[in-house]
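We modelled the chain as a single entity of 139 amino acids. Its sequence is:
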Amino acid sequence: MNSNNLHDIIERGILKMGIEPETARGESTGQWEFIRGSASITVGLLHNDRFPNGYFYVSSYLMSAMDVPTSKIEIFYKTLLETNAKFVNMQLAVSEGWVLLLSNRDALGLDDIEVAIAINELSFYADELDDQLKERFIL
């Protein structure tokens, strides 16, 4: 499947969520960005040697892990791991000091319904978790 077909599939999935894909297109080809509740959501498609068919992802940066006080850092990471165990098709990760919620897969066989489901699920949890984690560990 070529990139243009995948872009169309992703944009149809975004549209199913009531978001106009044209206004959500990011600066990079194959990237869309929008807000759902209090969460900033990024949807993307990457190609590389490992994923020649494309790599679909939905992600949301939730908070800076560096803002967590040292006295709470151990319970913070334990909470992330315990929360992670409750998810299906997504995971919490820490990258360059940021906590993010991520859903990803090889794009082979991707359809617009799966795109909409991935966006809906991830944005629901991101909207809850960004506030919950900050309230519990920073504020």
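As a brief sanity check on the tokenised model: The first strand starts at residue 31 and ends at 36. The domain at 3-137 is CATH 3.30.1460.10 (Yope Regulator; Chain: A,).
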